[in-house]
Amino acid sequence: MTIDRLQVVFKVVERCNINCDYCYYFNMGDQSAQDRPPVIQPHTAGKIADWLARGCADLGIPHVSLAFHGGEPMMLKPRNFDLICKIMTDRLAGQVNLTINLQTNGTILTPEWIEILSRHRVHLGFSIDGDRAAHDRHRLDHRGRSTFDATARNLRTILDHAATDSPWLGGATISVLDAANDAAAVFDYLAGLGVRRMSFLLPDRSHNTPFAGGHDSALAYGQALFDIFRAWLVRDDPDLRVRYISELLRHLQLAPDTNQDSPQFAKDSGGPDHRTQIIIVHSDGTVGVNDSYIPALEWFQHTPEHKIDTTTLRGFLSDPIFPEIEAAIADLAPPCQTCTWRTLCKGGDLENRYAAGTGFANPSVYCEGLKFFYENATALLVENGYPRRYLDMALAS
Fold it and tell me: 289: closest CA among 28, 64, 22, 8?
């Protein structure tokens, strides 16, 4: 087993101070987080650090990306976050190239937090869905109140720090698309704030969650992706990177293969063509598979969890679930095998392929929208001078 990068999604807080209605972790039927400690204890973090250090030495893993996640990880007391960062750095940094990320809803930020984040060179990612109207469509607190003002204010604060004395903070953003929003306006709003790294996500769903129609359709989401692409082209700023656009351009060899070392930029789960291995580490010291698969709930609830007290990293990664996931990723549905866009789409994200009864042997639930985006984006590139023969070569590779 060769792993170049271990991405550890570290669930240090298993609760959240807001209640996004689309949240896969709390609002898609899996309630296992409620059975785990709300907040990790430093002694548990120490055991996890030792477990990771032994496992990386055993497997020869050179790079670990540690992504503080939740829930909302900034519900930790700042001093405990500081201590856990020290523990992880002391026990891992001497043997691996360690990067530390934190994904936050952005509602909690103080000068103490900023100092600690800066000192540990934490790469910070914000979840924000756009301007007030777009953001508050789904991202409300538990009493139904807006979270926009705090999130936008704190994002601006972090962007200011990143532009001056702490460039590693970054201030990358994740935005979950809603086709009822003006996607180009969302992009322009974030770009206007000074965001330089964006990721736009399709809402979590499987074939078990049908579209409602109107704005909620696969085609509408493809149109939203294309609207962002056109807005990005208008800005003509190669340093402003959007995840799915960068992936398209790299495939067409129009952009360098950059390392997007943030939790939102990894979807691969392992295998000969995927050298990043994602694992989830929970607040109680159990480890499991990538929980972005929760929309495939009937399947996900049968995936194994292991206790670090009774297994090694090698032992965990030897679980049969990992070759099962690799096979599901590689086994494209028959319509996908002959699709023009298969080398770009790769069948879509695994959870979006799932349907009760047929498992993952289906095209993405977003197939129609993805085709719309690829057809229109590549046509626009050809219209602006990208040679058609190069496009044909890229799609065949």
Answer: 8
